[in-house]
Design brief:
By secondary structure, the protein is mainly β. The protein is built from no helices and 9 strands.
């Protein structure tokens, strides 16, 4: 199950100038979306990058969603002698999932 944790917000390329990040292939603006991902009884918050055209209108915290083409890529960089690494998550699109009704047969 994936649930929106925080409303989408513009992804910035440069926080000092406010320059928006753009998709290298399509030129579409990118947004950041935080979602809660639950698996095996554990919940994690993932911060995803999604092209703005892949974000539906009215997306809000608490909505259940599905992710199209979710990709996880490791990254590493060095800044002022400090090495940092992590995993970047990206999806092509987010779709609001139909609510699951209690007692409904699948």
């Amino acid at each position: 199950m994936v649930m929106v944790a925080q409303a989408p917000r513009p992804k910035l390329k440069d926080r000092r100038t406010g320059e928006m990040a753009m998709d290298a292939e399509t030129g579409a603006p990118l947004v950041t979306l935080d979602v809660t991902f639950v698996a095996n009884g554990e919940a994690d918050i993932l911060s995803l990058t999604v092209p703005q055209p892949g974000i539906p209108e009215g997306l809000a915290p608490g909505m259940l969603v599905t992710l199209t083409r979710l990709i996880a890529r490791p990254w590493e960089n060095e800044f002022n002698g400090q090495k940092r690494s992590g995993i970047a998550f990206r999806a092509d699109a987010v779709t609001v999932a139909a609510p699951v009704l209690a007692g409904a047969n699948a």
